[in-house]
Specification:
Structural class: mainly alpha
Order of helices and strands: HHHHH
Largest sheet: none
Strand content: under 5%
Shape: globular
Helix content: 55-70%
Length: 160
């Protein structure tokens, strides 16, 4: 998905192996994650782990970005898809975090079978909802990616 690649490219500008770069990465994630988790109320929120990692770095949670009001349940499913999928990427990124830096947020992966179980629930909801439901879920996923992109653009270091 184009939105996913854009977010990956933007966050690749952050250094995860030094404290200033990693703290900026976490602050950017917090700006997007907080309003999105408030929107979907996940069973296993990651904002507490993110706040813990920032506190370990002597940082506080930044103010959240403004998120759109979800127009439908399908839209919220799309947001959930983006957030649940980001757990997979987080587990990979956790290996790149510098020695001695906290990793609670990025290490908050799914329990065994959790991603597959989520996908089954998503597929069942999509089958029941039809094409309009799927289109709305895609809009929700895109909006979540857009919020992460906006946060990354705000906080990303400039490269000359």
């Amino acid at each position: 998905m184009e939105s996913h690649q854009r977010v990956d490219d933007l966050f690749s500008r952050f250094s995860l192996d030094d404290q200033p770069g990693y703290a900026a990465f976490l602050r950017a994630h917090a700006r997007a994650l907080a309003p999105l988790e408030a929107m979907i109320r996940p069973d296993a929120p990651r904002l507490p782990q993110l706040a813990q990692d920032l506190a370990t770095l002597n940082e506080t949670l930044p103010a959240p970005l403004a998120a759109p009001t979800p127009p439908s349940d399908a839209y919220r499913w799309g947001v959930r898809y983006t957030l649940e999928g980001s757990r997979l990427g987080g587990a990979m990124l956790a290996r790149r975090v510098g020695s001695g830096l906290p990793r609670a947020y990025l290490s908050a992966a799914h329990e065994k079978g959790g991603w597959a179980a989520f996908q089954r629930r998503l597929d069942a909801a999509a089958a029941k909802g039809g094409r309009t439901w799927i289109d709305e879920a895609i809009r929700g996923a895109s909006a979540a990616f857009d919020l992460f992109a906006a946060a990354a653009l705000e906080m990303a270091p400039l490269h000359g």
